[in-house]
Amino acid sequence: MAGGGCCDGDSNCRAALREAFGESSDSDSNAPSGVSSGAGRERWRWEAVAGIRGLWLCAAFLSADEQARLLATIQREGWFIDANNQLSTLIREAICLGDVNVGVGSEMTNEDEDACPLPSDLLWREPFFDQLIANRYNPGEGIRVHVDLMRFDDGIAIVSLESACVMHFSQAEPTGTVLDTGHLKKGDREPTKIPVYLNPGSLVVMSGDARYLWKHEINRKPGVQQWDGRELEQHRRTSVTLRKLLASPN
């Protein structure tokens, strides 16, 4: 069911963004070299991933040109500082101004009427993100199943570049009893795995249950990357992950 963005209106969204980040332009002439804030509103469509509370996907977060410019600047000196600011701004704007889809054919609840890829306390925290890491994976290389470390706050964003892939999510605690052999007790079921297709330029945001109660992995071994009944051809993949460190207890 489609709806508006997370703010109460276009003018309110832009006013809030101007207050937080200053003026932005849709023209590339004044845009940072990596990504251009404000240029993607028409293509931003947020999808809530069925079965996982707090997991949202924006398939067309970055245009092909923005992806190319972002990749071209990864090795530039000081890029991580600039990119953290640029991507943080763009992610916040995409969440505010993008359309939200809570599921075709589902009944809208009072909670869904306020559906947003991130809760407001995370969306407007300062800084939004303060840690950025870019990783490159050759064909066959992926990420092991894991839950992000607890030293990071709620709300994690992952931008995918270059190669398409399928990220699998599974519940952090298995539903069955594991025997000493490592197998599930007879009668218990394997934990459910939910696949999410990540095309180049996509953005996935995790908060709440998706961040803490679900593990995620990308297995790029031959034959594993399947989508719509076909095996995905694997190329080099680059991911950019943005997180916020928790304040030190000291």
Automatic annotation (TrEMBL):
InterPro entries: AlkB-like (IPR027450), AlkB-like_sf (IPR037151), ALKBH7-like (IPR032870), Oxoglu/Fe-dep_dioxygenase_dom (IPR005123). GO terms for biological process: DNA damage response; fatty acid metabolic process. Pfam families: 2OG-FeII_Oxy_2 (PF13532). PROSITE patterns: FE2OG_OXY. GO terms for cellular component: mitochondrial matrix. Residues 128-246 form the Fe2OG dioxygenase domain. PANTHER family: ALPHA-KETOGLUTARATE-DEPENDENT DIOXYGENASE ALKB HOMOLOG 7, MITOCHONDRIAL, SPERMATOGENESIS ASSOCIATED 11-RELATED. Belongs to the alkB family. This is Fe2OG dioxygenase domain-containing protein.
